[in-house]
Design brief:
This protein has 306 residues and is an alpha/beta fold. It folds into two domains: 121 residues, ATPase, nucleotide binding domain (Nucleotidyltransferase, domain 5), CATH 3.30.420.40; 162 residues, ATPase, nucleotide binding domain (Nucleotidyltransferase, domain 5, 2-Layer Sandwich), CATH 3.30.420.40. Helix content is 39%, strand content 20%. The chain is built from ten helices and twelve strands. A five-stranded mixed sheet has the order 3-2-1-4-7. The chain is globular, with a radius of gyration of 20 Å. The model has no long low-confidence stretch (mean pLDDT 94).
């Protein structure tokens, strides 16, 4: 049985087909359109391509940036022209088949739990640190969602008051409509914002990372302390077997080592900090996680196994 996973982001739509052994057998990438109708058609075109390239596709999963409100079926997506539209339903209607639709960070979490750094662990939490901050929870290799469908939006918990106050950091407005969300401080743009506030210098994340042991040491220490508070929050509420870190900022050398130290400092004295691991799936994780979610839905609906 072949399964299709589509990783849908603000700049590209990447389709990957996996066989029954979860080996990739075909892939196809196209740019993300800026028009809604063209976007829906582009996703459908990827589904058609997969059937032509790899034969019958039993299940289709789409991992996309943003959220879908389970009460209305409408999307909320800052990086896609789909906000306020019934995006998953329109894809299904035009494709003439059922799809599994999930947030791209939840797709990555599932991929890492089943195939990557969380393999063999029961409770796996993913934390994605990139242009935004998000994540996902997987329990016994099953993607965990809930009635609001907002679980995993870790970037929108409140930034820790004690660190904000200690450094006199501003309270930033967030794109979600709230104020003081942690994403505004620890995402890639957040790290740049910290550097600008603390040092007055407008630097890229690469420049900050390269200078984190010299003139950017204070900025890096604040950033690590803020991320450690998120790790501590996840530990206190979920206590996962492992927290898998992904996203562009995790490519910074020694970031795991620095966050392990900061995480230990944030933990209740005498208790162990949560185990950390880097995501292993690379750019395949999103599509593979979406495909696996679709396969699970197909299995549950049909009672079939592979």
């Amino acid at each position: 049985m072949n399964t299709l996973g589509i990783d849908l982001g603000g700049t590209k739509i990447e389709a990957r087909v996996f066989d029954a052994a979860w080996q990739e057998i075909a892939r196809h990438r196209i740019p993300t359109p800026e028009d809604y109708d063209q976007l829906v058609n582009a996703v459908v075109d990827q589904i058609v391509w997969a059937s032509d390239a790899a034969g019958a596709v039993a299940a289709v999963g789409v991992g996309a940036a943003g959220l879908v409100n389970p009460q209305t079926g409408l999307a909320l997506a800052n990086n896609l022209p789909a906000t306020g539209r019934p995006f998953p339903a329109d894809i299904e209607q035009r494709a003439g088949r059922r799809i599994t639709f999930l947030n791209d960070c939840r797709a990555l979490a599932l991929s890492e739990a089943v195939f990557g750094a969380g393999q063999g662990k029961s409770v796996v939490m993913a934390l994605i640190l990139g242009t935004g901050v998000s994540g996902g929870l997987v329990i016994d290799q099953k993607w965990r969602t809930g009635p609001t469908a907002t679980g995993g939006e870790i970037g929108h918990i409140a930034a820790p008051a004690q660190i904000i106050a200690a450094h006199g950091l501003p309270i930033y407005d967030c794109g979600c409509g709230r104020k003081g969300c942690i994403e505004g401080y620890i995402s890639g743009p957040g790290l740049q914002r910290l550097a600008a506030f603390v040092t007055g210098m407008d630097l890229s994340t690469h420049e900050i990372a390269a200078r984190r042991t010299t003139d950017m040491a204070q900025v890096w220490a604040i950033w690590c302390a803020l991320v450690a508070e998120v790790l501590h929050h996840l530990t206190l509420t979920i206590d996962p077997d492992v927290i898998v870190l992904g996203g562009g900022l995790t490519a910074i050398p020694d970031v795991i080592a620095d966050l392990r130290v900061a995480g230990k400092n944030a933990q209740i004295d005498g208790f162990a900090a949560a185990p950390l691991a880097l995501a292993q799936g690379g750019d395949a994780s999103g599509a593979r996680g979406a495909a696996y979610a679709a396969w699970m839905d197909h299995r549950d609906a049909t009672g079939l196994t592979v």
